[in-house]
Amino acid sequence: MKYLYLLIAIVGEVVATSSLKASEQFKKPLPSILVVVGYAVAFYFLSITVKVLPVGITYAIWSGVGIVLVTIAGIILYKQVPDTAAIIGMILIGLGVLVINIFSKTKGIE
Question: Domain spans of the chain?
C-alpha cells in the first residue's frame, strides 16, 4: 500500500503543478481548483507514505518521478519541448530513482 499511496501523491502533484499555468495566476476557476485539490491530495498521501518509508527516499521518488511526469505533461498540454540538456538531466534523475529503489537498503517500516 505504501507505493500506492506514493503513486497517488505523485499523480496529485503532477495534476496540480500542470494546472498552475492554466490557472493564469488563479484567475481561472477550474484549473485553480485542480491546483489546490491536487496539492492537498499530494501532501495528504505523501504524509501517509512517510509514516512507513524514510522521508528522504519518499521525497526523492516523489520529486524525481514528478519532475519527469510534469515535463511530459508540459510537452502534451503546452507544447513546451525540453532541450537536450533537460532531457539528459531528467534521464539522470530517473536513473537516480532507480538506483534508490534497486540498491538502497533503506526500506522503512514493513
Answer: 2-103
What's the whole-model pTM score? 0.89
Q: Which of 52, 42, 49, 65 is nearest to 106 (CA)?
A: 52
Contacts of 81 by beta carbon, 8 Å cutoff, 6+ apart: 75
- Can you read off the three cell numbers belonging to residue 42? 499530494
Per DSSP, the chain holds a count of helices (H) and strands (E) of: 4, 0
Q: pLDDT for 40-97, tens place per residue?
A: 999 999 999 999 999 988 999 999 999 999 999 999 999 999 999 999 999 999 999 8
Residue 73's H or E segment, with its range, is helix 55-78
